[in-house]
């Protein structure tokens, strides 16, 4: 952030001029290296965040019908967007209660399969792989907003891995990025050139064209680009995704062990294999008011450990993103111990 005001900063520069385009080019190259992408995959980006990309995927990637995995609020939101589209058949929904996982399976009339790598609302992590027995022409879309830059994934069997950069990638929101396969790009070209009306902001093929020129359709927030590029470069300097995945697993492990050892806390996700390394959700015993606990923490400068509001559980939710120091999480557990021992 300090670098934004230094001499030579791109702040205030037109996004179509070389200084900003160099930043965009660096982001695309660094994400390609970070995920060791196949040579024919591309990184695209545009304004609006991952929420906009749900609508973009609805109009630019799904031809007739999608199948979705729903296991929390964010997977539900994309499924709802698909259901509202008047030009698509209702999605085939594979659903699990919060804290568990449901992945879509092969359905004969489905051309697109979608779920989230990490369900941010619950702290459930999902595999990134092509479902068994699906049609060769079907696309696989994975929402990676809270996983990108913190959980390893192989892109070679899926078609779109999309995310906003405000979590592990240490930037601001308002931007979407997508790692796209040739099949996804071909599908978007075909769908957006058909009789279906596609607004320019939701036209993935147009976004790809602009991305190839290292720019976006309209003016992006330059600070978001600068911070994103700096974080991608930092992750590569530390050792790339192998390092990031090891760090988040270690840091989240501190919290999961603490939650298992403390008699007043329990990991919300019961299956250890499904526990997210980047979003840790912990149930608090009913004898403790978790809202009061979070409020007292906030009064002392410990921010944003509140649970996802729509779950309505007596719990806390803690980020263990790549940039978060393990020592800070160790300190947090000590603070939580004090608060639990000295509760009203």
From TrEMBL:
It catalyses: O-phospho-L-serine + 2-oxoglutarate = 3-phosphooxypyruvate + L-glutamate; 4-(phosphooxy)-L-threonine + 2-oxoglutarate = (R)-3-hydroxy-2-oxo-4-phosphooxybutanoate + L-glutamate. Its cofactor is pyridoxal 5'-phosphate. Pfam families: Aminotran_5. Pathway: Amino-acid biosynthesis; L-serine biosynthesis; L-serine from 3-phospho-D-glycerate: step 2/3. One of its GO terms (molecular function) is transaminase activity. Keywords: Amino-acid biosynthesis, Aminotransferase, Cytoplasm, Pyridoxal phosphate, Pyridoxine biosynthesis, Serine biosynthesis, Transferase. Catalyzes the reversible conversion of 3-phosphohydroxypyruvate to phosphoserine and of 3-hydroxy-2-oxo-4-phosphonooxybutanoate to phosphohydroxythreonine. It comes from Cutibacterium acnes subsp. acnes. Its EC number is 2.6.1.52. InterPro entries: Aminotrans_V_dom (IPR000192), Pser_aminoTfrase (IPR022278), Pser_aminoTfrase_mycobac (IPR006272), PyrdxlP-dep_Trfase (IPR015424), PyrdxlP-dep_Trfase_major (IPR015421), PyrdxlP-dep_Trfase_small (IPR015422). It comes from the Bacteria. This is phosphoserine transaminase. Residues 113-291 form the Aminotransferase class V domain. Belongs to the class-V pyridoxal-phosphate-dependent aminotransferase family. SerC subfamily.
